[in-house]
Amino acid sequence: MKKTISGIRGIFGEDLNLKDILEFSNNFSILIKSGKCVVGKDTRPSGQMVKEVTSATLMKNGIDVLNLETVPTPVVFRESRKYGAGIVISSSHNPLEWNGMKFIIEGRGINEQELPEILQHQEITQTNIGVESDISSSYIEDAKKIIGNIENNPEIVVDIGGGAAKGFAPELLREIGCKVQILNEDLAGCTRGPDPTSDNLSDLITSSDKKDIGFAFDLDGDRLVVVRKGKKQTPDVTLGLGVAKSLELGYKKFVLSIDTSVSIEKYIKERGGTVQRSKVGEANVIDLMLKNNAQAGGEGSSGGFILPEFNYCREGILSSGLIASMLGTAEFNDILNHMESFHQIRDKTEIDSEFHDKVIDEIKSEFSKDYSETIAMDGVKGIIDEDSWVLIRKSNTEDIIRVSAESNNEEKCNEIVKNTIEMVNKSYEKIR
Asked: Whole-angstrom Cα distance, residue 86 to residue 73?
């Protein structure tokens, strides 16, 4: 089971059971000050069972449950701004046998100080019993106000992936003026996996080849991957397009995760914007956004664009509309041409968790000798030159160390990754 500020996840019926769901829901009740909690789920087979246990536990503790049923994660975040708290029953892009819970306080995910409250047993004395009521969301209407109408009626193929974006992404795109074709609307018969960043999206590539653009969502609708001209784009492109639209709207203050493409940072600065870097992870990006009143940003590795004025989470649904509104514009072509000259690789190597910290300390010393600048915010990042960098980070859940690199030269990027993985493995052999 994974227990982080991004949520609790596990294989349902193995390391995540209904007893765990009951305990976490009980503990979360302590953090709910409004007396109300919005609850929604994605399309996983175990979702309804988990939602019912979650709702019953909250009501036992005097919390009124506002039921959204099957909706994308961004919709639960959006409604939680109105009601004070929320729980999403989802394991995001993990395989179908997984499930989990994302916890929301006042429209944002929980932080490092709140996580222990959910993990440690809380005794609750409550005489009142909460009630459950179904609610609908104004998400599509709210998103349309941000995006506006599109006059050129672009043709778009949307791959739902059998997930919760059904009923939201296609409808929003149609509302703003797009012609929409849908793939994999339901989980039964879906031809791809729940994570569009790792799937080859062959059906979407074929179907969108003669259309303006293709969009693919993960199971809970917060991740978005773009397909264009028969080619799947990197997750960073989703963020880059969101950033370009933000600049067009006049926003200047951005936060990007430390592993996000340097091409996006350069694009922002060339247009008069400022960039701050956060640790990897959606919650870390949002935490820095809130501290510094940033206007937009996100995490390139997960295709996660974030617009705080609308939502404190990755915004796959809104992003699809914002990107659609840019089709055929100079800004759309500028950002894609700018990013195409940079190459990114994300890789990993197996290292026992007990040696992660020692290996990273060793590599930090090596990076300090070899590179012009090192940053130890999250693992260690070596700045090779203004267009090239490498980052190593430990995994909190697996016996691996992640290696990410970027350069404006593809051969150089491959060489950086190869040399860094060799360096990590040699260090591991030396210290174990």
From this structure: 10
